[in-house]
Write a structure and sequence with these properties.
The complex is a heterodimer of chains A (669) and B (146). By secondary structure, chain A is an alpha+beta fold. Among the domains of chain A are: 1-168, no CATH class; 419-504 and 615-639, no CATH class; 507-611, no CATH class. In chain A, 63% of the residues lie in helices and 12% in strands. Chain A has helices at 2-27, 42-65, 72-77, 84-89, 95-116, 122-146, 170-198, 204-235, 246-271, 275-297, 304-309, 312-335, 350-380, 389-409, 424-444, 449-466, 479-504, 614-663, 665-668, and strands at 506-512, 517-520, 523-534, 538-549, 555-557, 560-565, 568-573, 575-579, 582-594, 600-610. In chain A, the strands form two sheets. In chain A, strands 2, 3, 4, 5, 6 and 7 form a six-stranded antiparallel beta sheet that branches. Chain B is mainly alpha-helical and 146 residues long. Chain B has two domains: 24-104, Helicase, Ruva Protein, domain 3 (Orthogonal Bundle), CATH 1.10.8; 106-146. The termini of chain B are far apart. In chain B, 25% of the residues are buried. Residues 1-23 and 136-146 of chain B have low confidence and may be disordered. The chains are: A alpha+beta (669), B mainly alpha (146). The interface between A and B is large, with 68 and 59 residues.
């Protein structure tokens, strides 16, 4: 019964999306400044829609929690013996459930926008809500027509099929929801951009409304990508943390666009420059979110041909993609000429540096897009091409290296116009740090070019990130500035981790029997024993490794080779030992036959990855910097509102006094 | 198309390699390094640019798939026998097609991968030159927008 309520709630939400869209659009017909009778319905429709979508999602969550095997989705993706947490996360570990989560987040953010945002002119708000309703309607249609999560089976089955064991991990519990919040937060930025474009209100006031949404979405994307990367790192069992896999790229592309957008929107808010640019990036950012959803959800990645054989879902998504991207570009083309470009600035100004980096981010985005889509395109013509790290790394570095250099300098420049000579000493310092770092790495050994450059840039960037604080009273630095410093420092930290990992990683693969010892980078690894263990829905061989560094106190690591039985699949559960300067990564493989001494040998893989953890520490710092920026902006906004209120009260008092003063003396006379 | 049947087929497909893995023990060099660190480094560098044909976007250097293990064995034993990485790559490409190699090479099917980034680079420079090249006053016509 609950499931049917969820299904009905979804249909009602779709109907409200239509109301929201029509009401918002009709409100635009009236002349500006006039209150429209139609505008009344858009906000409540968005809020109630959010509640209905939340109800729909909650009922599906409940069906998974109690393993309701009469629901097709539960039967095909869950199992009664699964741990409770993974029953819940299984809700979005499949196509229909994750699309429902997507739509629910979309409705919730639309509802929040409608409920809380009062700073925009009502016309712009109506246009924004109309666009948001239009976008939501498309995805409700997709969900209800081709991906209904609430479908019942003719009769309940005895047991479910289970969830992919790789996905039975705490990483999956947080990773997709955070990414979706990021993706969908960009939908609000998109709707706001469209609303401002339609009503010709592209100005700093609009940028200030848009900024927290962009920042919020960006924080979630950053966190989601960081978590996803760490999940791949420990779960796949080979120590890789980024594969340039299309699914990863699908999350990276919106992040790149959102990064450019958030800088651009800040310029618009602070300086009233880059108007068309900000609108364009708003369109691009959400387009990338939708493209990512299409790539991951249409099945086109598994095989272009499989997609062509069963194209229902993919085609619908593609139509939506074309409709929204094409439609927004058409509006952009019609309206862009009516928007003045905004305030001017020179190349050597902070805006100038931001423009350079926006262009570079867009170029990297274009490279990732090309490298992701090109193999799909050729596959359609029966030519299979592999595009992987050896392509993506150098191609994106061409744009990333100048970007990092400009990023080091940009925050030191003044707005509008500055002379490079003014920051001469800082430039010399940063250049010297980079050169010393290159020399040091070259002295240590023969390392590839890109990691070496990465290490040098990381060193210079780390210092450069802190330079904006120089000569300022630290207690008086605005919170948002701390956010920028933190995020830029995080980029340096992450870059250092990436470069260090790819330059200095040591690997040891061996087949050894219990009692034998392997050495790696100052670590001694002894295989003590290998024993069978079992969990709720798996059995495993667990190795007991005694590891010690430079003869120190030994620590026990227990990597497992797991065999899940529903569905049947083997996974490697790596065991990690974290030290401040890196991680020891141990994996136990299959039995490797009997050695010459008659003992059974096991495949053991051990890596020492210096400073690899900095990749994710950096990612967290970047996200935290974004949080600080949001907090800082909200603080300023609240303070300004209070000042306006207090000012108004004082004026009223004064007016009251002024009004009463001439009146007061009269009775005295 | 019924979903359970598609799903069952899919499960069968991912289960099949598992049983194969159980049946045949992996080749010796699949999970063992070469003695000579210089040779091993050469082999690793090569393995990282070869695609695991059974996986999604993984090189043979980071996959548990049995086929990746066999290919690692091939690469290591050929490096040990004194072959050059380029030779081994050519041999593998000959056997499995261009798809097996991640190494970017300009060919009739891949030239856009190189031409288009060059175009991006030119566009990026052009956009920057237009936007930043000359100083303009605040009242420039809006049609000039980037």
């Amino acid at each position: 019964m609950l499931v049917e309520i969820g299904h009905a709630a979804l249909w009602l939400a779709a109907a409200l999306a239509i109301l929201q869209m029509v009401s918002g659009a009709l409100a635009l017909r009236d002349a500006p400044g006039e209150p429209s009778p139609y505008a009344l319905y858009a906000r409540p429709a968005a809020v109630v829609q959010a509640l209905l979508a939340a109800v729909a999602f909650a009922t599906l969550l409940h069906a998974f929690a109690v393993t309701d095997l009469s629901v097709k989705l539960v039967a095909t993706n869950s199992h009664s013996m699964k741990p409770f947490l993974y029953k819940l996360t299984g809700t979005w570990g499949n196509h229909e459930g994750s699309m429902l989560l997507w739509v629910t987040v979309l409705a919730l953010s639309g509802g929040l926008l409608a409920f809380a945002e009062r700073r925009l002119p009502e016309r712009t708000m109506s246009a924004t809500l109309a666009v948001q309703g239009f976008v939501a309607l498309g995805f409700y249609t997709f969900l209800l027509l081709s991906s209904n999560p609430f479908e019942r089976l003719p009769g309940p089955v005895a047991e479910g099929i289970g969830l992919n064991p790789l996905l039975q991990d705490i990483g999956l519990a947080v990773h997709p929801p955070t990414l979706y919040v990021g993706y969908v937060g960009l939908s609000v930025a998109f709707s706001l951009a469209m609303g401002a474009l339609i009503t010709r209100e592209v100005n700093p006031n609009f940028a200030k409304v848009m900024r927290p949404w962009v920042l919020g979405a960006w924080v979630f994307l950053t966190f989601g990508i960081t978590a996803g990367s760490y999940w791949a790192y420990y779960e796949l069992g080979w120590g890789g943390w980024w594969f340039w896999d299309p699914v990863e790229n699908a999350s990276l592309m919106p992040w790149l666009a959102a990064t450019a957008l958030l800088h651009s929107v800040s310029v618009l808010a602070a300086r009233d420059a880059l108007r068309t640019w900000t609108i364009m990036l708003g369109v691009v950012a959400f387009s990338m979110s939708m493209l990512g959803t299409f790539l991951v959800r249409s099945g086109v990645l598994t095989s272009v041909h499989a997609f062509a054989v069963d194209p229902e879902r993919g085609t619908l998504l593609l139509v939506l993609l074309g409709l929204y991207i094409g439609g927004s570009l058409a509006i952009f083309a019609l309206r862009a000429s009516s928007i003045a470009e905004g305030k001017r600035f020179t190349a050597t100004s902070r805006e100038g540096a931001l423009v350079v980096n926006n262009v570079m981010l867009c170029a990297i985005l274009a490279i990732v897009l090309l490298g992701t889509l090109y193999p799909l395109l050729t596959e359609a013509f029966d030519v299979r091409v592999s595009v992987g790290p050896p392509y993506f790394n150098p191609a994106s570095a061409i744009f990333a290296i100048p970007m990092f250099m400009v990023m080091a300098v940009g925050p030191l420049l003044r707005w509008k116009d500055d002379s490079p000579a003014r920051i001469g000493p800082e430039l010399a310092l940063l250049g010297a740090i980079a050169l010393v770092a290159v020399a040091l790495v070259a002295f240590l050994g023969d390392y590839p070019v890109l990691p070496t450059l990465g290490l040098a840039l990381a060193a210079a960037l780390a210092v450069a990130a802190l330079l904006p604080l120089k000569g300022r009273r630290l207690t008086r630095v605005p919170t948002a500035t701390w956010g920028m410093v933190m995020a830029h420092f995080g980029v340096a930290v992450a870059l250092f981790g990436m470069a260090s990992e790819s330059a200095f990683t040591q690997e040891r693969l061996a087949a050894i029997a219990p009692g034998e010892i392997e050495e790696i980078s100052g670590w001694t690894v002894q295989l003590e024993s290998v024993d069978p263990v079992s969990g709720p829905n798996w059995t495993a061989m667990e190795a007991r490794l005694s590891v010690s560094r430079d003869g120190g106190e030994p620590v026990i690591l227990r990597p497992q080779a797991r065999n899940f039985w529903s569905p049947a699949q083997a996974t490697s559960e790596s065991s990690l030992l974290t030290r401040w300067d890196g991680q020891l990564y141990a994996v136990i493989g299959d039995a490797a036959g009997v050695g010459a001494d008659g003992k059974l040998r096991w495949q053991l893989r051990v890596w020492w990855k210096p400073f690899v953890t900095f990749i994710w520490y950096g990612g967290l710092l970047i996200a935290f910097g974004g949080v600080l920026a949001i907090v800082g902006r909200v603080q300023v906004d609240l303070r300004r509102r209070k000042a306006v209120r207090v000012g108004a009260e004082r004026r009223d008092e004064k007016a009251a006094l002024a009004g009463s003063r001439p009146a007061a003396p009269e009775p005295a006379e | 198309m019924s979903l359970p049947r598609t799903l069952a087929l899919f499960l069968l497909l991912i289960a099949a390699p598992l049983s194969a893995q159980d049946a045949v023990p992996p080749a010796p060099y699949a999970y063992t390094q070469l003695e000579d660190p210089a040779q091993e480094a050469k082999a690793t560098a090569l393995m990282q640019t070869l695609r695991c044909l059974k996986c999604q976007s993984q090189s043979i250097a980071d996959s548990d798939a049995p086929m990746a293990g066999d290919m690692r064995h091939q690469v290591r034993s050929r490096i040990a026998a004194g072959q050059e990485p380029a030779e081994i790559r050519a041999w593998l490409v000959d056997r499995y097609g261009d798809y097996v190699s991640y190494q970017p090479e300009v060919s009739a099917t891949t030239w856009p991968l190189f031409a288009i980034p060059a175009l991006f680079f030119a566009i990026a420079l052009l956009v920057l030159a237009r936007r930043l090249g000359r100083e303009r006053s605040d009242d420039t016509k809006a049609g000039d927008a980037v």
